[in-house]
Design a protein that fits this description.
Length: 470
Amino acid sequence: MKDYPLYKKIIFVLTLIIFLLNGFYWRFLGIESCQALTIEEERAMGKKFKLELDKHLELTKNQSIQGYIDRAGKNITSQIENKLFDFNFYIYKSSDPNAFAIPAGYIYISTGLITLAENEAELAGVLSHEIGHVMARHIAERIEKESKLNIATLAAILAGVFLGGGQASGAVGAFSIATAQTLSLKYSRENEEEADRLGINYLTKAGYDGSGMIGFLKKLKRHRLESFQVPPYLLTHPEVEKRIDYLDLMLMRLPKQGQSENNVDNLRIIQAKVIVDTWTTKNAVDHFKSSLESNPKRLDLIYGLALANKKLGDYDQAIKGFKMALTIHPEDGEILRELGICYLSEGKTENAAQSLKKSVAINEKDKDAWYNLGRVYQENGNFQEAIESYQRVKRLDTDFVDVYYNLGVVYGKKGLLGDAHQNFGIFFKLKGKLDSALFHFNKALEYYGKDTEERRKILKEVEEIQKNKK
């Protein structure tokens, strides 16, 4: 979270509280009164809540973790007829197990909740319950009935975030928890039962074991007793014992479904990535080493330790770990990619090329593997092959920032200066350095004739930047 000077924080919060207490907040969100929200009004509100949340939550940038949650979420939402909203799932970094929904189908899940789950059915159970709240429009209902409480609470939340001392992670956790409470704490028992009823139906129709939802609630209850604290997810969804009893009764009436294939192993790999992504590197290394003592052949622990050693910069140990992981799962494109990146970091370009070529052969849509294969070619002076690999990355992800810089360098090495400056221009534009972007776009124009398509593209970029600067 950004660290603003104290006087600016105070001015911001005082202004915000006055703003809220004078009743302008809902008009800011597009709501003129506390009457029932239309679907369009809830969509507009959801977008604005999301913009505020994104300023304060640190979202994971790991595409593999995000992709896993997106797939689980899509498995559930694909069972819903007449979806009211487009569902979007976000993972934020917090050790507290928590999940919450904001208006219009934006669902947030903490990394702590992911690591607490034992299988995908438990994780999917949490998502399905939050989806149930969204589909039943409970959030809009709470806002309609308790707008005064929400306004005051939101002011207090933001005051706590901007003025609170301690570590930023604590402030982020407080914000996310309290925001969920603002929208969810006053859910009635009927709301909870409806969300559970809808959620468990979505869950079982998606092929998950419905007991996953119950199992996770029991785990949270145990977590509460062992730590003498109430997990945030239980704060926002009270009366856990009654929910467990109600779900038990519901599950007896539903047809038995099996868990999704391999979901335990897949989840463990994701949990290993979450640990490397969110823990301190030393703590992650210690955790995996300790766990491997009793489970020396578990793929997720071997892979997790290798990832942690890579992050630590201990490439020798990382390479040993990835090689060991490949003895268990020899056709894993991600492991091959990570092994190739380690070889490249050690200057072993032949080994790197071998691993990365195998990786893209297994998964031709792995942009990180293509990017690093391009780096190998670039380092070896194979500039045309490097360009082809980088162009693959661009086709897979036009916002992959670093690839434009590398293309600029490689085109320059080949003497294609128009292409070089054009790619440098895109790189600096994406970085927000508009003066540097303009310089390179203008230089690129010197190398293209008046009626060329590339010149028209560059002039359009120049025009857009000049408008933004004004």
